[in-house]
Design a protein that fits this description.
Blueprint: E1 11-16, H1 20-30, E2 36-41, H2 44-53, E3 58-62, H3 70-78, E4 88-92, H4 98-106, E5 111-114, H5 119-206, H6 212-243, E6 249-252, H7 253-263, H8 265-271, E7 274-277, E8 282-285, H9 287-303, E9 311-318, H10 326-329, E10 337-343, H11 375-385, E11 390-395, E12 399-404
Parallel strand pairs: 1-2, 1-3, 3-4, 4-5, 7-9
Antiparallel strand pairs: 6-8, 9-10, 10-12, 11-12
Helix pairs in contact: 2-3, 5-6, 6-11, 7-9, 9-11
């Protein structure tokens, strides 16, 4: 049905009388109110068809009509769910007897109006029931909105409860995963140590005493145990990022970078690497883990250098002041300090930008660039522990730039 209850729309009123003259008079009196939409019907059956098609605020219904009287029409109106509560004002040409009046009120008649119509009485009675209808509809709407709000609150509470349960399960899962990684790594080390010892003993005692294939096989076994040991230690480091992390404190980044460069001094000198950097402000961080991030990124830049003299530049600027590929800083708060570690190394295709942060993922051959492929995964996990994120921009032969924050990323 058409909703006609809003104040910005006209209100439907159904006029039912078998005599066109009476309908004309009703229309003339009530049409002075521009908020009314007057719909006419000349029989009970036509009135019922109108009521099934549209929604009405009030029915003015003649009692004495041929075929189907007003009372019979009213009885059918009351028998339908959508019109059961519709106000009906009966129209009668004469003062009715007590029994007839009682019959009308038994059909939940709202009122009676005598013919010929008194314009003031007619207007007043109609306006009262129209106002009542509007207020009823407004109350229904408020009830619907209130119930919707209650459901939203229930949903919000349910969502918060589910989110809390999910967070709790995730926390326990992470703890179990960290414990599992630690146990597995620890339990693997002992048998691996034994295998490594015996293989190295074989290499020491029998090198050159067997054929060349045997020497190669022993060398492969020794190399394999070394790589396995490195991977186990890397798994331990990865699992400890969250469980062994220290409380955040104010850290002087200048001191951190000086320490990292001192630790990497031998590699820097042997590779002829030139490292430049500016002045950095203090940040809130886990000092040990932040040092590990810088060490991994700088060591990576040295490791994946090109034939040209290796150059590394370390800087920190607000996101709004950095002007790389816009996608690299998209999502950062403009006021967030962004650290950059830029090199002129071999680079890689940008399509692998996400893959390099995955555990045990390497883009280059282990023969030329040995390693476990877990360093960048550890960097990512450390940075995420600090509430930040890390991204990379690279191009083959043109170097790589890592961008990372320690928080205030726009979600």
């Amino acid at each position: 049905m058409t909703n006609v209850t809003a104040t910005s729309e006209k209100t439907n009123i159904l006029l039912v009388d078998d005599k066109p003259a009476n309908l004309f008079v009703l229309e003339e009196i009530l049409s002075s109110n521009p908020e009314y939409n007057l719909v006419k019907a000349q029989s009970g059956r036509e009135a019922l068809r109108r009521l099934l098609k549209d929604e009405f605020a009030l029915v003015l219904l003649d009692v004495q009509m041929p075929g189907m009287s007003g009372f019979e029409t009213a009885q059918l109106i009351r028998g339908h769910d959508s019109t059961r509560g519709l106000p009906i004002i009966f129209l009668t040409a004469e003062l009715m007897g007590v029994e007839s009046i009682a019959e009308g009120y038994a059909l939940n008649a709202a009122d009676y109006i005598l013919k010929p119509f008194n314009p003031d009485i007619l207007k007043t009675k109609v306006s009262v029931f129209v106002d009542l209808h509007r207020k009823t509809e407004q109350l229904k709407m408020q009830t619907i909105l209130l119930n919707k709000k209650i459901e939203e609150v229930k949903d919000e509470k349910f969502a918060k409860k589910e989110l809390a349960l999910l967070a709790d399960r995730l926390t326990r899962s992470n703890m179990e995963l960290a414990q599992f990684a630690h146990v597995i790594s620890h339990d693997l080390q002992e048998p691996l140590r034994m295998i490594s010892s015996f293989v190295q003993l074989l290499a020491k005692r029998y090198k050159g005493r067997l054929d060349k294939d045997a020497d190669d096989y022993i060398n492969y076994a020794v190399d394999g145990t070394h790589r396995m040991k490195s991977m186990i230690l890397s798994i331990l480091d990865y699992s400890r990022v969250g469980s062994r992390g220290k409380a955040f404190e104010r850290v002087d980044c200048n001191v951190i970078i000086d320490q990292v460069l001192a630790d990497l001094r031998l590699s820097i000198e042997e590779s002829g690497t030139e490292v430049t950097y500016g002045t950095f402000s203090n940040v809130l961080a886990d000092k040990t883990q932040l040092r590990q991030v810088f060490q991994n990124l700088i060591a990576n830049a040295i490791k994946f250098r090109s034939d040209a003299p290796c150059r590394i530049h370390i800087s920190c600027s607000l996101a709004r002041d950095i002007n790389p590929n816009p996608e690299m800083i998209n999502g950062f708060d403009p006021e967030t300090p962004v650290f950059c570690v830029c090199d002129n190394g071999i680079g890689f295709e940008q399509q692998y930008a996400e893959r390099i942060f995955q555990i045990f993922q390497q883009l280059h051959g282990k023969e030329k660039y040995p390693g476990t492929g877990i360093g960048l995964a550890i960097c990512k996990k450390i940075i995420e522990r600090h509430g930040g994120c890390i991204r990379v921009e690279s191009e083959p032969g043109k170097g790589t730039t890592f961008y990372f924050t320690l928080g205030r990323e726009v979600k």
